């Protein structure tokens, strides 16, 4: 090493270390060139220590990173899939004996009607039967009641075809949730109003201030037939957001006497809806509780009595007989038989 090079090292050691060859200031050991190369990595390539330090974000312990997670919106239930058309089901052949009894087929029909995916008239058209035949079949009750209706095998075959194409009838609850989700703002406003007024029934109307004579002993005179109450129940359950479970709670809330039932289940409601006849189901708790509920609702909404209701008060001044469900026996002469009219009156003819 020359005297000039030694002077540079004394006056500016850092500059000399960068610009001078490695042999001028490093030993000749096996790691000499490797150490030199680490120091001479040019900046701006992303590999130098300076570049790595610059690319690493500084973290201040006193300032935690912000939480960027957004609140997820509630999942919206899917829109019910439309029913397959007649053309789509035309080529499907269903063979074999009927595997569902009458009650099972009726439940499928009621489920489709309650979900709102088809009307009774449209369903009768799909089955190729009259609305009268379909309505008569739906009014029957029992696993083997209704086998004589053409609606029974036609409906069984229709629902089997739906299963064959992979169509699943939606539950009414999922449709109601969809409707509530689509009108979330309105639902929240309605819930706030309901909480303020104390309403908690399926009608959304506060009837707690309505009193009917005899309700404390569960002895309110009834001026409707069982068939009329069934018609009102069917119409009420078709309203958006109304469920069978909530309506059963509404019915149970109308009982106050010592014989108040412990509960009213949806199976009891389904059984009552499946009956047919002016007196069929008269002894059921569903019949009495539903009548009281609808009567309070009529009074609260200031609706006038129907002609049927006025006729019932004239025919049954003490109230409809709730002890006879139409299964009593009658003694008749030869050639005579008992008949029941739509008001529940029995005559021998």
Q: What does it look like?
A:
The chain is an all-alpha fold and 349 residues long. Helix content is 47%, strand content 2%. It is built from 17 helices and 2 strands. It has helices at residues 3-11, 13-19, 22-25, 32-39, 49-55, 86-89, 102-115, 120-127, 131-139, 151-164, 172-182, 184-197, 226-237, 244-252, 266-273, 285-300, 307-315, and strands at 338-340, 346-348. Strands 1-2 form a two-stranded antiparallel ribbon. Helix 1 (3-11) crosses helix 2 (13-19), helix 7 (102-115) packs across helix 10 and helix 8 packs across helix 9. The protein is globular and about 60 Å long. The model is unreliable at 20-39, 173-180 and 182-199 (pLDDT under 50).
Fold blueprint:
Elements: H1 3-11, H2 13-19, H3 22-25, H4 32-39, H5 49-55, H6 86-89, H7 102-115, H8 120-127, H9 131-139, H10 151-164, H11 172-182, H12 184-197, H13 226-237, H14 244-252, H15 266-273, H16 285-300, H17 307-315, E1 338-340, E2 346-348
- The helix content is 40-55%
Q: Beta-strand percentage?
A: under 5%
Low-confidence stretches: 20-39, 173-180, 182-199
User: Radius of gyration, Cα only, in angstroms?
Assistant: 40 Å
Mean pLDDT across every amino acid position = 76
- H-E string: HHHHHHHHHHHHHHHHHEE
Which strands sit side by side, in order, in the main sheet? 1-2
Total E-strand runs: 2
The assembly state of the depicted protein chains is: single chain
Number of helices: 17
Q: Report the biggest beta sheet as strand number plus sense, adding barrel if it closes.
A: 2 strands, antiparallel
Global geometry: globular
Q: Based on helices, strands and strand pairing, what is the structural class?
A: mainly alpha
Measured between the Cα atoms of the first and last residue, the distance is 141 Å
């Amino acid at each position: 090493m020359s005297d000039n090079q030694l002077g540079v090292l004394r006056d500016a050691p850092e500059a000399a270390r960068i610009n001078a060859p490695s042999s001028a200031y490093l030993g000749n050991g096996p790691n000499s060139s490797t150490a030199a190369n680490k120091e001479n990595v040019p900046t701006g390539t992303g590999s130098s220590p300076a570049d790595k330090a610059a690319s690493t974000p500084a973290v201040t312990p006193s300032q935690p990173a912000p939480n960027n997670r957004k609140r997820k919106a509630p999942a919206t239930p899917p829109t019910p899939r439309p029913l397959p058309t007649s053309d789509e089901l035309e080529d499907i052949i269903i063979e074999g004996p009927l595997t569902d009894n009458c009650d099972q087929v009726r439940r499928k029909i009621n489920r489709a009607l309650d979900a709102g995916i088809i009307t009774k008239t449209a369903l009768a058209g799909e089955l190729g039967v009259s609305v009268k035949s379909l309505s008569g079949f739906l009014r029957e009750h029992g696993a083997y009641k209704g086998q004589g209706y053409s609606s029974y095998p036609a409906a069984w075959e229709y629902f089997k075809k739906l299963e064959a194409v992979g169509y699943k009838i939606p539950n009414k609850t999922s449709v109601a949730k969809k409707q509530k989700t689509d009108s979330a703002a309105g639902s929240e406003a309605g819930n706030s109003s309901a909480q303020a007024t104390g309403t908690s029934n399926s009608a959304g109307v506060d009837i707690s201030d309505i009193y009917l004579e005899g309700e404390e002993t569960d002895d309110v005179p009834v001026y409707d037939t069982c068939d009329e109450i069934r018609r009102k129940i069917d119409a009420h359950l078709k309203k958006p957001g109304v469920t069978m479970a909530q309506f059963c709670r509404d019915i149970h809330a109308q009982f106050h006497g010592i014989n108040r039932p412990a509960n009213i289940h949806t199976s009891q409601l389904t059984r009552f809806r499946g009956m047919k006849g002016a007196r069929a189901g008269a002894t059921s708790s569903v019949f009495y509780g539903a009548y009281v509920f609808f009567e309070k609702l009529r009074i609260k909404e200031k609706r006038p009595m129907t002609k049927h209701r006025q006729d019932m008060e004239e025919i049954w001044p003490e109230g409809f007989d709730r002890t006879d469900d139409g299964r009593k026996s009658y003694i008749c002469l030869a050639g005579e038989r008992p008949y029941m009219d739509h008001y529940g009156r029995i005559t021998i003819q």
